[in-house]
Every structure is written in C-alpha cells, then in structure tokens.
Amino acid sequence: MLDIDFITENPEAVRRAIRTKGVDLDLDELLRAYDDMKAALQEVEALRAERNRLSKATGSAPKEERQRYIDQSRAIGERLKGLEPALRDKEARYRALMLRVPNLPSDEEPVGDDEDANVVHHTWGEPPGFSFQARDHVQLVELNGWADLTRSGKLAGPRTYTLKGRLVEIEMAIWRMAIDLLTERGFTVIEVPSLAKEEALIGTGHFPSGVEDVYYLEKDDLYLSGTSEVSLNYLHSGEILSEADLPRLYAGFSLCFRREAGAAGRDVRGLFRVHQFFKVEQYVMCPADRDESRRWFGRLLDNAEALVQALELPYRVIRTCTGEMGAGKVRMWDIECWVPSQGRYRETHSVSELYDWQARRADLRYRGADGKLRHAYTLNNTAVATPRLLIPLLEVHQQEDGSIRIPAALRPYLRGLETAGGAQP
Questions:
Q1: Residue-level pLDDT at 425
Q2: Mean local confidence (pLDDT), 13-27
C-alpha cells in the first residue's frame, strides 16, 4: 500500500495510477473514510485520556470527591462502549480501501489497458525453421510416453497432468540448473510451504483483488499459494532488520497452485495453463533506494535471460503496460519464449519492481545507518516455472523422429545425455 500522507498530499497522482491501472477504487471514498476514522479515533483517544486522568485522580481526591470521579469515569466508559465498535468498523473500512490503492507506475513505462499497449524492449535468438512437419508439445510427450494427460483428469479433473520418465528428469534438471546459477550469483536457496495464511497473501498484494484465483482450505483457514513470493515476502514480517542485513536474496522453490479462474476456455490444451506447477522464484528485499532497486531489477532480468539463453530458447523481453502490470508494481517486464506450434511468443517470466508497496502491507522494516526505521523495497522474478517452460523447450528442440535435442548447458544435469526420446529409451 501507499503511505496515507503521500496519498493526501498527491491525490491527482494517485487518481492517475488508479485510472491507468484500471483499479476499482473511488479515491474520494477512501479520503472520506480516512477523515471519518481519524475523527472517531481522536474522540475515543480523548475520552480514554480523560478516563485515565480521572482514575489517577480518584485515589488522591478528597473522600467527598471520589464518588463524583468514579461516576464520571463510568459515564465515559459507557460512551466508549458505544464509540469503540463504531471506530473498529471505520478502521476496517479504511484499511479495506487502503489495500486497493495501487502503486504509481514509472513514468518510463507504457500506458495502456491491455497487451496491445505492451512494448517490445529486445529479442534474442531466431525462431527455428523445420524441414519436417513439426509437432506440438502434446504430440511430442504422447509420442515419447512422457505424460499422461487423459488419466490425470480422472485423478484431479481438467488442467492437470502427469509427467513420466525422461521428461521428469529434464524438468528436474532445469530446476537444478536454475538453482545453481542463482546460488553462484549470491542467492540463498530456500524451500517454502505451499500453504499460506491470508495475511501473507495480503502482504504481497494477491489479496484482496486476486482472491478468486487462489484455492482455499476452509477447515484449516489456509490457502494454496501460487508462488513462493508469498512466503518469501512474509518471512521477515514484523522484524526490524539492520541495513547491513540487506539486500536479502532468496531463490525460493515451491509447488504452486492456481485456480486460473479468469482463464476459462484459454490455453486448455496441454501443459500451458495448469492448476499445479513448480517454480524457482527470485526475490529481493533491499534498502529503500530507487537507484539500488533499479539495479536489482536489471540483475533479476539478467538472471532469467541467462537461464533462457542457456536453454537455447528464442525469446523477447516485453515492457508491460500499466493496465497489465498489476496494482502494486512500479514496472513489470516479461520474458516471452517462442512456441513454434502457436507461431508466437508466450510469457514464461515476469520481473517486478514494487518499491515499498509490499513492505508496508507485510511490515518489512529495517533500521538505516542513520538510526531511522524505513520500509524496505522488494522485487521478484521467475527463474523457471515448469511445466510451462517445457513447452518451448520441447517444441524448439524437437527433431524429425520426435526426439528432443538436449541443450548443452543442461547435459551435465542429465549424465551427458544429448538426445531424449525418439529412438532413445
């Protein structure tokens, strides 16, 4: 969330962010809720202070005055019984509206409502040309016996999958390669729960707007997280770190779940938009310095590009427009890998810069060298997400007999294997 003082001092900038990000929020309603809450809080605090004064005065007051003080204190208590519930309601209304306030997007990023306004920043590699009739990833995994996309439906319904044999090894090799690269670049590998409390999802900004896309376990009052960012961002909630402890660099690994509630009828074939997947997530918490945040944005993007290049996948980097980047983000750039069967690039990675928007929600603070407490800045980016990344990998590197050429960088993780499938076991 944004600081309320910033909102009241810069209402037009916030209105512009609400408009360009397409957020459902009436800023005037929020400001009225803030004034109502503040007035109610001042009244309650004044009465509490007066009751405390009377309580202290009662003990030292002359005997004939004590009953009057006691009666006055009781009368204030009765007034507070009526005012305090109303104050809690006003506080809840104000907080609910504050949680919907978007971050201000960078002036450098494109303004628009949907993907048509996104801008290509750069491309890498050339889409392959095939001298044979290329197959899509579903045909390739079925030909090689690497997945069971029919029986999995019996187990868990649509948008589920069962990977088998060599493809599981390839998937794990990709995770291992990503973890090794991030470890070499200073990140701490951390495996986090897939389960998350509501406050952790509020902390990242997935709630309240994205609640329909998250699985809820009612008996346990827990949610299945769609990314390890949720846990990583809440890991240090309520702590006060030292500036010397920053930046915190985490490579989070977790099993992720998404209902894909807003994607009905889209990408239903194969492995692209599934309910369950694995992800290695990059997460950075750094000091509240915009130049440093910008540098980390570049490094996270570079890490992801290094991994995609190691897999020899043609891709492009997209500067995402305001209407697509999400409420909390200052900027978001996507990596889209080439999918031959679709004849287009598809999103596989997103790098996001949020300044202190998440930190205020999750209570992530540190003490600076000057002794002042500040909210940290946060950033995140996909390192690898599977099985989605398997789609371009299989299709780009397919050979005429249906086998898959293993990229050189991945071979050490597969005991030197150069080709999988086809005539291979």
A1: 47
A2: 97
- Tally the C-alpha atoms within 13 A of residue 187's C-alpha that lie toward its C-beta: 28
Respond yes or no: is residue 151 known to be catalytic. Answer: no
Distance from C-alpha of 356 to C-alpha of 287, rounded to nearest angstrom:
10
Backbone angles phi, psi at 349, to 5 degrees: -145, 150
SS3 105: coil
What number of residues does the chain have? 425
Domains of the chain with CATH codes:
4-98 (1.10.287.40), 115-420 (3.30.930.10)
Give the position of tokens 């978001």: 332
In contact, 190 and 281? CB cutoff 8 Å = no
Residue 103: pLDDT band by 50, 70, 90 thresholds? very high
Residue 373 clears pLDDT 90, i.e. is over it:
yes
Residue 210: Cβ within 10 Å count: 18
Q: Is 350 a catalytic residue?
A: yes
Q: Is 258 a catalytic residue?
A: yes
Best CA proximity match to 376, nearest among 352, 354, 362, 356: 356
- The answer to whether 405 is a known catalytic residue is no
pTM, rounded to two decimals: 0.92
Catalytic residue among 100, 248, 361, 388: 388
> Which residue from 317, 179, 201 is spatially nearest to 252, judged by alpha carbons?
179
219 Cβ neighbours under 8 A, 6+ residues apart: none
- Rounded to whole angstroms, the Cα distance separating 165 from 105 reads 45
